[in-house]
Write a structure and sequence with these properties.
381 residues; alpha/beta; Aspartate Aminotransferase, domain 1; Aspartate Aminotransferase, domain 2; 2 domains; seven-stranded mixed beta sheet; three-stranded antiparallel beta sheet; 39% helix; globular
């Protein structure tokens, strides 16, 4: 039996979405940009999917731009915003030190080109202070990019407070949310933001497709030049079957139901982990702050997370580790930014569930994890 606890990395797609995609590949294969009726039928699938993907998280006032995934969506949001300005040296970006690499490395790239970037500090749980955010805004600030749910620990930012703080200081500053981990899992109105990035394979869609939601009336520049598809923001032949399958995925996604399904399993895991290893072992302090319903981050100082991962893998249990290294040497990793010691980081694992994770699977994980840790501690002496 496979017990899969790496859903923050990728989820199993819904069967219905896969079946629809496979069918449309052979029935609706015309180019949606073609002028003939066959192409028009393909474009109708795209338009129908747009209605589906804006029916969630109160996004009816947003235009969805279909991309290859969250990384492209993030690049389009941040680079597309900065590209509007003739002198990049007079642009300022605000983000945090606990972003996914797609945000951090995009900001580093723009820094190299001449933009200035502020990386906000966080508290020990990974939360930013809106006072720090407000203080960081200056006359050149063009965009604030914040991760909604941290992919390593599951901490949830107060995005409404963040949006209010930015807009109170300067309504012209765009707020971008990396919503990759929270989308479809947390019942939250996201309409306070201007730009929102998501990736389908994080919520039971397929790999290779994502969305950048752009609030109607907000203008950014496209970063890929070509035939001008999708309002000239994402040129390239539109993948109607994949987009239709994404629409199907979103139609099956109910954040209220999914969150309610996952929370009891997450809480059981948390209780079992704290009972077995102590409260200090669990870095996702779900009793102290707002955390996503699907991620728990756990540390075993003195052990190696990668070794634990492979020991569990031998039992058919799949987890992930938290990266100990930064994507660029001059920037700290997420856990370093939160104040973790290197020993703690090296011994960190991430457990992430889905709506399909069962109590039996959770109990199996805890049993084998206890066994693995006991063995490793014994070997260490």
């Amino acid at each position: 039996m496979i017990c899969y606890f790496d859903n923050a990395a990728s989820t199993k797609p819904y069967d219905e979405a896969v079946e629809l995609y496979a069918k449309l590949l052979t029935t609706e294969y015309a180019n949606p940009s073609a002028l003939h009726s066959f192409g028009y039928e393909a474009m109708k699938l795209v338009e129908a999917a747009k209605k589906e993907v804006t029916s969630i998280h109160d996004l009816k006032d947003f235009e969805p731009i279909f991309t290859s995934g969250a990384t492209e969506s993030v690049n389009l949001a941040i680079k597309g915003t900065i590209d509007k300005f003739a002198d990049i040296r007079r642009t300022h970006i605000i983000t945090t030190g606990i972003e996914h690499a797609c945000v951090t490395n995009t900001c580093l790239y723009l820094e190299e080109k001449g933009a200035s970037v502020t990386y906000l500090p966080t508290d020990s749980l990974g939360r930013i202070d809106t006072a720090d955010l407000t203080d960081a805004i200056n006359e050149h600030t063009k965009i604030v990019s914040v991760i909604w749910v941290n992919n390593e620990t599951g901490i949830v930012q107060d995005i409404e407070a963040i949006c209010r703080a930015v807009k109170a200081k300067d309504p012209g500053i765009l707020v971008h949310l990396d919503a990759t981990q929270g989308f479809g899992k947390i019942p939250q109105d996201l309409s306070c933001a201007d730009l929102i990035s998501v990736s389908a394979h994080k919520f039971h869609g397929m790999k290779g497709i994502g969305i950048l939601y752009i609030r109607k009336g907000v203008h950014i520049n496209g970063i890929m030049k070509g035939g001008g598809q999708q309002d000239d923001l994402r040129s390239g032949t539109i993948n109607a079957p994949m987009i239709a399958a994404l629409g199907k995925t979103v139609s099956m996604t109910d954040p209220v139901r999914i969150s309610a399904t996952m929370l009891p399993v997450r809480d059981r895991l948390y209780d079992s982990l704290t009972e077995a290893f102590g409260e200090d072992a669990v870095n996702s302090k779900i009793r102290q702050a707002d955390y996503a319903p699907h991620i728990l981050n756990v540390s075993f100082p003195g052990l190696k997370g990668e070794v634990i991962l492979h020991m569990l893998e031998q039992k058919g249990i799949y987890i992930s580790t938290s990266s100990a290294c930064s994507s660029r040497k001059k920037k700290k990793s997420v856990l370093e930014h939160m104040g973790f010691s290197q020993e703690r980081i090296n011994g960190t694992i991430r457990i992430s569930i889905s709506e399909f994770t069962t109590f039996d699977e959770a109990d199996c994980l805890i049993k084998e994890l206890k066994s693995a840790v006991k063995l490793l501690k014994g070997l260490r002496g």
